[in-house]
Amino acid sequence: MSGLLAHMGTGVTTTCRCWALTRRDGVVMGFTDHDRALAFEGVAFRPDTGLSALAVQQSTGLSVDNTEALGALSDAAIREADIEAGRYDGAELRAWLVNWQDVAARALIFAGTIGELRRAGGAFEAELRGLTDALNVSLGRVYQKSCSAVLGDRDCTFDLDTPGYVSERPAEVVEETRVFRFGEVGGFEEDWFRHGVIRVLSGAATGLIGLIKRDRVEGMGRVIELWQPLGAQVVAGDALRIEAGCDKRMSTCQFKFDNLLNFQGFPDIPGDDWTITDPTKSPALDGGSRR
């Protein structure tokens, strides 16, 4: 930072902007608006991507910093198919102001995530949200009958790699990237995977996850249907990981997963009907007189 300030103080500057984008699947991409490649912090910043940024809006306090990035869709950089598949949703992004003659003289001017991403006419426009955007997320417990945990998270603690709860197998017949048909999935009763997920481990859709809507037996085969199509093609032979599902009920937690001690719901809280009931319209609730 001090090196960049000294450079800016000379009155004649050689600065550019660099962006490092880290997708949730671990892929790291570097861009710069300079006319030649730069490299620092283990990232190569490419000049041939057509990426540029608008002014960064920054403020004091807890207001969310925001800006936008514009660029051209390219098979060598950001592809429309990857945007459609959701690979850039929630990706982390850092931006620097850099002295391109001495990349050690640089300053981080923005850090955050990609919000809304739009594409049209061979180009894309991405909304960038600052780190304080995370403060808009609601925190705390919700008092509800069903479990509030996600199967396998730190509140649930259930190990999904436990034998009998996961099936890893190649795709066989895939319809509209939403319906998966298998010749046989032995050892799992019908609806075992309902409310679970399919993770794609190889092929064009590697890293994508689909939520399971139905799991049924048809003849000698098995049909697993997703709520929504995956964002990329899955073909026969692609490796899949199918994980058992949880419908958030206490009985499921107890008998299907043997995990009742970690159940995060409140099944004994009276419902809304009980709270508005009066003695003249219901049987005695506590033994008291109704006259």
TrEMBL record:
<feature type="region of interest" description="Disordered">
    <location>
        <begin position="272"/>
        <end position="291"/>
    </location>
</feature>
<dbReference type="InterPro" id="IPR018964">
    <property type="entry name" value="Phage_phiJL001_Gp84_C"/>
</dbReference>
<dbReference type="Pfam" id="PF09356">
    <property type="entry name" value="Phage_BR0599"/>
</dbReference>
<protein>
    <recommendedName>
        <fullName>Bacteriophage phiJL001 Gp84 C-terminal domain-containing protein</fullName>
    </recommendedName>
</protein>
<dbReference type="Pfam" id="PF09931">
    <property type="entry name" value="Phage_phiJL001_Gp84_N"/>
</dbReference>
<feature type="domain" description="Bacteriophage phiJL001 Gp84 C-terminal">
    <location>
        <begin position="191"/>
        <end position="273"/>
    </location>
</feature>
<dbReference type="InterPro" id="IPR011928">
    <property type="entry name" value="Phage_phiJL001_Gp84"/>
</dbReference>
